[in-house]
UniProtKB/TrEMBL annotation:
Keyword Cell membrane applies: no
Chain intervals with Polar residues compositional bias: 1-12
Ranges annotated as biased composition (Low complexity): 67-79
Descriptive protein name: Defects in morphology protein 1
Length: 544
């Protein structure tokens, strides 16, 4: 059963980015906290890797009636057709060569141990003075992701130690359980069909095409999952994978409360400045309830925005555009919800970054050339014939027994029939062209920035059963996000050293595999011990 959770804005409970209490006095209780075991109901947020470049080569189609079997049949037909086109080549191997192509489990385990041992030795040599960005996120290594920006919100030093020792964050049992829950949820919405890619341009084109399919699924069913997004923030290119975008408000009461608070703040601001308006991406209560009278009565404090996206609105004038809500799914071993503050801080920033990237793509504000440059993709290189042929024959995943139509409606809803996919890919046969097509799909789905709700939701599920535990709601706050990202990128760029946790959050050390060798922890303990000794010495002198 879902727990009753009230809407809360996490911004109020978060400490400012630079509000680090490193110089405060340490007493016996704080030092005890540094060495105390973890508390049962306190868990580090499970943040899954969202770089995207390590995902399987699959097309993700909308799961509708009959789509699974139809997609499977189409995949088999595409594979048969591919084999028929390819020449038959027989290669003879002797037993020694055959063994080299089939490593034993022992060999695989040994190679893994060797890689980990090699990675761990990096910390034994002279210190690497390069910035974390240069060391860990410069081509040909993975690009910067939302995970990279929000994971340090738990503890920067822990994330730095993980990258330094292993080159990545090692998958924990909690992360594996989280991946399993995410997979089950995704399979409720999408059908995955394997695709063979020939070039890296094919591989990136597949990522773009899956975004197109995700947007179509959203329009068709009112929900999509695992939607990849890209953007450029503070000069850095990054990507992320949104767990869920839906047209169903996760908590209407929470949204009304949020809108009321925003309008009250805007109204008070207008009284002072005579000019302040709501941000263009905010809905008013009148828009929420569809009440024109309410809107007209409050027109002095509100700002309406009737324009559409960069390609103009594709929705009718009489029917309001669908509202979209961004949801992030988190798994927990505990049956309780995390408290606001340090336990939800990474999730809060993660949701705001997803909102920023999704909205920027929808507004066509992301320079595609920057994205292609970062992933070292030739934007003008044509996709391989086999890639186009495979993708073009899989569009049947969008047809069902009842011939369902686009939930958005409109005269051009029929354009999404599967038979047109091949023609679409032949016309948009490069990443540059396919990106432009993806932007047009965004314009159909998100006609204006006001279509994306600023109500952000974290959905907590059991890591063992996947059952819903409850939700936490946050309100998007651009100034706070900007301040956090700027500060975090200053560490990534090597402009400042990594920070440890705040003294009040020393309980986190009980969950950290690097606690024993942590420089911050050692320095704080030493500092605290010295201060206690000084206080005791002063006490003895006063007694004399």
């Amino acid at each position: 059963m879902e727990a009753s959770v009230s809407s809360q804005n996490n911004a109020a409970s978060l400490a400012p980015v630079d509000d680090s209490d490193y110089g405060s006095d340490l007493d016996e209780a704080t030092i005890d906290a540094l060495f105390s075991p973890p508390v049962d109901d306190v868990e580090k947020p499970v943040i899954l890797d969202d770089h995207g470049d390590g995902r399987k080569s699959v097309v993700r189609l909308a799961r509708t009636r009959g789509s699974a079997s139809q997609a499977s049949t189409a995949a088999s037909q595409a594979d048969t057709s591919k084999r028929a086109r390819e020449p038959s080549i027989e290669i003879e191997y002797d037993e020694s060569n055959r063994r080299t192509f089939s490593p034993s489990p022992e060999d695989v385990a040994q190679q893994q141990r060797r890689r980990e041992r090699s990675a761990s030795l990096e910390t034994d040599g002279p210190p690497d003075t390069r910035s974390p960005l240069l060391r860990f996120r410069t081509p040909p290594k993975k690009g910067l992701s939302v995970t990279d920006l929000v994971s340090p919100a738990w503890c920067e030093l822990q994330y730095f130690y993980s990258l330094s020792r292993y080159g990545r964050v090692r998958r924990t049992p909690a992360m594996k359980a989280g991946s399993s829950v995410h997979k089950v949820l995704e399979e409720q919405v999408h059908t995955e069909v394997p695709v063979e890619v020939v070039t890296k341009e094919d591989r990136f084109g597949l990522r773009i095409w899956n975004v197109v399919q995700g947007l179509r699924t959203l329009r068709r069913t009112g929900m999509t999952r695992e939607l990849e997004v890209w953007g450029v923030i503070e000069g850095e290119t990054l990507n992320g994978i949104i767990d869920q975008v839906t047209t169903v408000c996760p908590d209407e009461e929470a949204e009304v409360k949020m809108l009321l608070e925003i309008e009250t703040a805007a109204h008070n601001g207008i009284k002072k400045t005579k000019e302040k308006h709501l941000p263009p991406d905010q809905r008013t209560l009148g828009q929420y309830f569809g009440n024109n009278t309410f809107e007209s009565q409050n027109s002095s404090t509100l700002e309406s925005r009737n324009g559409g996206g960069w390609l103009g609105t594709l929705h009718s004038e009489t029917e309001p555009a669908k509202k979209l809500y961004i949801v992030d799914v988190k798994t927990r071993q505990s049956k309780s919800l995390p408290a606001h503050g340090s336990q939800t801080r990474p999730t809060y920033y993660q949701l705001m970054l997803y909102h920023r990237l999704f909205s920027s793509l929808a507004a066509n504000e992301v320079p595609a050339e920057r994205v292609f440059e970062r992933y070292q993709v030739d934007a003008k290189a044509q996709f391989s014939d086999s890639f186009i042929a495979q993708i073009g024959t899989l569009g049947v995943g969008f047809e069902d027994d009842g011939g369902a139509i686009d939930e958005w409606g409109g005269a051009d809803a029929g354009m999404e029939r599967g038979g047109d996919d091949l023609e679409t890919l032949l016309t948009h046969n490069t990443n540059e062209k396919l990106w432009a097509f993806m932007i047009s799909e965004f314009a159909r789905t998100v006609p204006s920035s006001a279509s994306v709700s600023t109500l952000l939701t974290a959905e907590f599920r059991s890591g063992s059963s996947g059952s819903l535990l409850g939700r936490r709601h946050f309100s998007h706050a651009s100034p706070e996000l900007d301040a956090y990202v700027q500060d975090e990128l200053s560490w990534w760029r090597g402009e400042r050293p990594a920070k440890g946790v705040q003294i009040e959050e020393a309980f986190k050390c009980g969950y950290c595999e690097f606690a024993e060798g942590c420089e911050w922890r050692a320095s704080k303990v030493e500092e605290g011990v010295k201060k206690m000794r000084l206080r005791k010495d002063k006490g003895r002198k006063s007694e004399v």
